[in-house]
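Expect sequence, tokenised fold; for instance:
***
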Amino acid sequence: MGRLTVGALRVLLAVVFAGTVFVQAGMAWTLISGNDPEDGSMPLTPLRVLTIVGMVAVQVVLVCVWRLVAMVRRGTVFSHAAFRYVDGVIGAITSAALVWFAVTAVNAPGQRDDPGVSVIMAGVGVGILGVALIVLVLRTLLTQAVARDTEAAHLRAELDEVI
């Protein structure tokens, strides 16, 4: 992975992280200050809390990806240390899906005239879970790569002994 690619990815991750912190701060300020313009048409307080929690899930993914990029840059990604970050990504994406399902449940009573919106929102939640499953498959590929790397190191050591 080139320096330009790593740099661009890190800038993108930092901008998205700053954006999530900004959104969290705005939601928290609205909840704490009592300046909630809620007119009763939607349950905004639960949606704000769910937004804050959802942003935490995004932040966990961003930090884990940042660490994995650092491991790729150092050439140490094919090690057991990478699993903790991949597991963090899987857990955060799964948590984000659960938060999205909660948002769908909170929003559903307001969609009685058009229940298709709730069905579409639930479908988005299933799609988010699908992303977690894709990352799980990629984790399996990482497991195989780490096993091959370990085996290659062992065979290299045996060959060095023979020579």
In short: Residues 116-162 form the longest helix (47 residues). The radius of gyration is 21 Å.
